[in-house]
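Notes from hallway chat w/ T.B., transcribed later so I don't forget. T.B. wanted the structure written out for a chain they're using in a teaching module, and asked if we could keep both sequence and structure tokens in one place. Agreed to drop them here.
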Amino acid sequence: MNIQRKYSLPNCTLLLEGLSDVTRAAQFQEMRPELSILVNAECYLSGYNQPLTGGREFFESLVRAVSGYAQEFLSSVPNPQAHNQESELVEFQKVNSNRHRLIIHSEGVPEGFESHSKNSKRPPIEIDLNTVQLFDLVEAVDQFFADSQTLPELSLELQPVTRRYGGASQALVRQAVPAAVGVSTLAIAAIAFNLIPPPQIRPPQPQPDEQSSSTTKSITPLASAAATPIAAVTPTPTPTPTPTANTKPVVKDLEALLNTVSEITDPSQLRALNRQVYNQIHPAWTNRSGLNDDLIYRLGVAADGAIVGYKALNKEANLAVGKTPLPNLLYNPANRTPIANEPIAQFRVVFNTKGVLEVSPWRGYATTPQVLGAKITDSNIVKGLNQKLYNAVRKTWSGTPTFTRDLKYRVAVNKDGVIADYEPLNQVAFDYFRETPLPKMFNAIYGSNVAAPNNKEPLAHFQVIFKPSGTLEITPWQGYQ
């Protein structure tokens, strides 16, 4: 299982990619999977377009160099661990009080950074950081060490600086606690001066923008479905205890969850859930500009429509999840009673660069889906309801259409001809649904355009077509095409 971990600060982001040890994965079914095998590490620094990349050796050397240099910078006592170019791939050099040079000796560094070495085979990369960037890098390393589910065997081995490198005066001690210093940085300063014991490392707190390929620190209650919304229905949550103000969604791994529960594959149920997912995401995606690439996700959805997890399927989706409403749409356990071993449906959700939301079942439809619920089938009653629906829609549809293609909908009414449900059938129907009277009619009855459809009584279903010419066509429902 491919896993990503991201530790983000304003001027620095560490992105780790790796695998989980399958021999140990069973015990982590109910929590974030352990990233125990590091495959790739990337360090993004503000002001540079390309990340620093490397494998396990590069990352461990970076961590040691950052920790050693932070100790040296805080104490003003030289620390050889920060400048060990004989055995380390990464080292630091102090240029001045607000300029710190990061030097990478590995051969796998990315293009886009200036090299100052005469060695044409493996030129070192030199990057100058200001103090703010340095401390953001230190804090990112702090977040990594506080994460017990990422490379747990890698620990920060802090060593006191020997007296031969210089003593620390009380004036230097006061330099050791600047504002915004992270947990492990304080530990470094403490050991440097033998003043305080290293503090206890706090467990990592979920962050909304962190996501893994199969799980996310705060966005992956499940990890294997994707979604696409439409315009009229949201799931009706099961009554549960009143939530507290500080309650947050429970973080689970989607892929691990799917290994323990069954998957919803019935085409008719998937079709209904597809609508519910779309109807949750579509109105919540308010800012649809500024995407450089399509953001593609795999979503996990419970039988009642609750979004229980998601997984980024491309790099841009992982980095830009904050531009989507997904982190805010994960179900809150305080608002919903958990159901033991409940089945999960999977969907593919795409936020594309044109601002269009696409939602479809992860594995498609095995057969043509059917409309759920009891149906009115008497031909005479259906004929009368057809005319009643036509009159109601025609009466409220006016104005000059701006769309250039037919808008197709499935509309259901009860025995009295009252609209009970409607569903767009093509993309243009999603895009221009506000030019039809359907949402107004639905809102007038249920008080909301996103109310759950009436499915407690038999319904008659029709296909309704709004044509660019202003013509309205309504025929009895023949099923999905």
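Follow-up for T.B.: The two ends are 37 Å apart (CA to CA). Might be a good example for the class.
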